[in-house]
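Handout for the seminar on molecular recognition.
Each group receives one record of this type.
Step one: identify the two inputs.
Step two: read the structure output and locate the region that could contact 3,4-dihydroxyphenylalanine.
Step three: write two sentences on what you found, then compare them with the reference statements printed after the record.
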Amino acid sequence: MLEELDEIYEHSLRDLTITPTISELEKWYKRNLGRKGQVTELTRQVGQVSQEDRPTFGRRVNEIKQNLENAYEKRLADLKAAELDSLLVFDSIDVTLPGRRQLRGRLHPSTQILREIYRIWGDMGFQVYRSRDVETDEFNFELLNIPEDHPARDMWDTFHTTTPGVILRTHTSPGQIHAMREYCPEPIRVILPGMCYRYEQITARSEIQFNQVEGLAVGRYITMADLKGTLTDFAKRIFGKERATRFRANYFPFTEPSAEMDVECILCNGSGCQVCQYTGWLEILGCGMVHPTVLRNGGYDPDVYSGFAFGMGPERIAMLKYGIDDIRYFWANDLRFLEQF
Ligand code: DAH
């Protein structure tokens, strides 16, 4: 009986040392030490052993059981460690592989040119004043001296909302009234940037949405000379010192007198080309002395105060600066275009 015991012990111990995996080990456990395992069965056979051998047999069975339990625990720990080792070898990170490229975003060309414009006007003492994109007819037109049915309204193709009198602003000029009403009677030096909307045929030169940067200076003794000097300085700062500029008389309902400013064509340097339509000049903004009616609508007495205003299109300026020949690129979301800036 005792011999059989030792044989079983040695045999299962040998088995144990060659279990290749944890799941094989669990099977081994069930076979030997489980509820119906052969070693467990042996403990039940104590009754069949002769009286005198019984204590020796019992002690030996318990010893064997304990040894096998210990050996099992050790084997389990070894197998787990081996499994981890092989994971580390086969699943490890290969630090020599090239990394995945990070896609870098960048600022939209409109944002870039806007920031450049803010910086220049900031250097000249102008603050950024933000006003709303959705306006009333009153602010977009009437308070800017453009009465209903006035033919000047034809200059602005308008998006109307379903609420009568509420429209998308066609220019940043209504911000002039907001700024004046907020600051009156203090002097003002602001620029008013933002998106404008026009119900237009989309072409290479015109979009239904675009940015404008409006400018407004109000105070005592502001003259046309201030307007010309300030805008000429701006043009030199953004296009370079050598670039010539000129003013041409024009008409806007909210300024009197009104003008447009041109810069010497950047592509042909003034000798005439397709872009400047052989004039040698490119128009970059509208401007003028704030109309007395507009000053009054903003709360300022036109007999005491005067001011100048201007409105420019940053996308137009970017097109000139970077030689972009189609305004539609700006909102077409084509990375081939956007990545060039
Ligand atoms: N609001 C004008 C426009 O869209 C641009 C403009 C012209 C603004 C003259 C001004 C100005 O402030 O004085 O088209």
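Reference statements: The longest helix spans residues 54-90. The longest strand covers residues 209-219.
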